[in-house]
Amino acid sequence: MTKRIAIYARVSTDEQTVDNQLIELRSLCDRLGYTIVQEYTDSGISGAKSRNDRPALDALMKDATRRRFDMVMCWSIDRLGRSLQHLVEILNGLQALGIDLYFQQQGMDTSTPSGRMIFSVFGAIGEFERNLIRERVLAGQQRAKANGVKLGRPSKMNALMSVPLRGRSACGTNSPLHPCHRPNETGSKATHKSNAAMFSATVC
User: Fold this and answer.
1) Is 0.70 topped by the overall pTM?
2) Distance between CA 87 and CA 157 in Å, rounded?
3) Which of 42, 44, 115, 201 has the fewest CB atoms within 10 Å, counting from its CB?
4) What CATH number matches the domain at 4-126, 3.40.50.1390, 3.90.330.10, 3.80.10.10, 3.30.70.1560?
């Protein structure tokens, strides 16, 4: 049974063209007797961007879940991605679906034992890179705390908003001076004192 192939090509700028990549991969499929199911091309998009920012790559991964092809062919590994983390994520996603990857320039084929070994090394390096970044972030946070830097989101309350609250804290409702805690005062006298206390709370 002939292999069903998906070709992925990408260029970083609109001035470049994917034609050379497609011509070479089409010729290879023709020599090997493979059937090209679909060609996916992203033009004017950096390889550092993730799947969500690359429409053709996103469409390829969605078609992979539908088992539309058996192998994904790229002209070069950097056409699929320039981020090791993104490459490992794509590889793991395709391998979980039983779909292989082939890179023409590097001669790498995950359907072979040597190709699978190379990508397993990529996966280990990607995991090491993620752990290294995490350790650096934690070390930076600890250093900032040691220097007295307050971490977390800054408060949205400005100085003017905090003035009435400071006054309320000093003359709060739990204070025995608050009119609510004064016994035996009723009617207009109590009301007058209550209003006076509230006014003083906002200015103190």
Assistant:
1) no
2) 44
3) 44
4) 3.40.50.1390
Q: Say what angle helices 187-203 and 159-170 make with each other, to 10 degrees.
A: 130
Query: What is the C-alpha to C-alpha distance for residues 17 and 20, in angstroms, rounded to an integer?
Result: 7
What stretches of the chain show up as alpha helix (H) in DSSP? 19-32, 55-65, 77-80, 84-96, 113-146, 159-170, 187-203
How does pLDDT run across 9-66, given as a tens digit for each residue?
999 888 889 999 999 999 999 999 999 999 999 998 887 787 888 999 999 999 999 9
Secondary structure letter of residue 181 according to DSSP: G
Give the CA distances from residue 204 to residues 17, 31, 167, 198, in Å, rounded to whole numbers and listed in that order: 71, 88, 5, 10
| Greatest pairwise CA separation for the chain in angstroms | 103
Helix, strand or coil, per DSSP, at residue 98: coil
Active-site choice (12, 43, 83, 175): 12
pLDDT digit string (tens) for 143-177?
777 887 777 776 665 555 555 555 555 555 555 54
Radius of gyration of the chain (CA): 33
Catalytic: 83? no
- Domain locations along the chain: 4-126, 163-203
